[in-house]
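To whoever is covering the structure queue this week,

Two jobs came back overnight. Logging them here so there's a record in the thread.

Job A:
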Amino acid sequence: MRTVAVSWDKEGGRFTALGRNRGHTISINAPAEPDSKRPPTGFSATELLLAGAGACSAWDVVEILRKRRHDISALDVTVEGDQNDDPPWAYRRVALHFRVAGEGLKVPVLARVVRLSIVRYCSVISTLAGVAAIEATVELVGGDGSTTGRVPIELALPAAPLPPGLEPVSDEDEPPA
């Protein structure tokens, strides 16, 4: 079981999260006092969810490429999320873009590794996939600065389940005429 402790720092106007790696905290924005003009004091909770998805998958990509003896020199993941307009503002779409630099790496190999992370190993994305559409692209950057541009990855994730009461209706469910 994983445990994270979140504490409110009233004076600092933030929450602080502490995980199992003691001494490493994350600052999370907290509500400002009424009429306060203070700037944000950290990540929003929903940004942390996206950061968790990006970091979780990036971890897998680095580990899998290392095991396959591919030498990568850089990896950046940009995660975009579209939220519903109404409370509780759940994510309906999460898109990850992996930008990787390395010698001898090919786009099809990188795409397979990213797909493996997203579909099989990343627990954060597996959790999100239950409610949001997950998309991914890869971009390979050469030593000379050349780039493949964004290449979409076919993930073939199962569709998120529909909320209760919105299940599809088949012709068999229709009463006889």
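Job B:
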Amino acid sequence: MNGTRVLLEACAAAGVKRVVMASTSGTIAVSKEERVATEDDDYPIVTVADWPYYLSKIYQEKAALRIHRDTGLPLVCLNPSLLLGPEDARLSSTDVVYKFLERRIPAMPSGGISFVDARDVAAAFVAALEKGRPGERYLLGGANMRFSEFFKRLSRISGVEAPVLKLPTKLNVAGAKLLERWHDWRGSEPDLDAHSTEMGERWWYCDSSKAERELGFAPRDPQETLVDTVRWLDANVRRREKASGVFLPG
């Protein structure tokens, strides 16, 4: 947050004409109930209190918008959901698809996911430089679907079976915490940590109609995104690992 504050204050002092900040839909669109969030929703601080990444992004976003109000810095905030698509060599956001392909997701999450093609988000960032309204947030989501449907689609594309086991939320999270402690004792890493398991029991749905109206945001068919993601991971990351015998940790 301090880095964001220092940078944006310097931008304001230098008279920068436009700043487009990359945030995340997780500063708005995460809930314990099945619902679709909009930009009018308040920050879900209580829901994400135990998740350092999302909590830090909320405070970053709040600081940035406060600087906009205090200095007049023309800042636009974009909030994409989970970024999927090809070319994610570091597995920075396609990790969930990679773990599915490697059969490292032991149980079916009960919540729902929102994802968007990184190529469509890139186009939205370009558009925001001219069309975005300063001081506004824009949710960017390509599709909202239950994790059960998400993994079924991945299964049809890849031929990898979706997780069959489905546990109640409390039992699923408790089991993940127990496994995490066991792995800590062994000095190893679990396939899914407790925080990731808990996130899978939440709802991440978002409404992108504001971005569609004002930025011309036009997400492609989500099936195209999933096909391209699976094919790229299989042809690059998974094939490289099999050839080298190297295993990338999650």
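Note for Job B: The chain has one domain: 2-233.

Please reply-all if you pick these up so we don't duplicate work.
Q.
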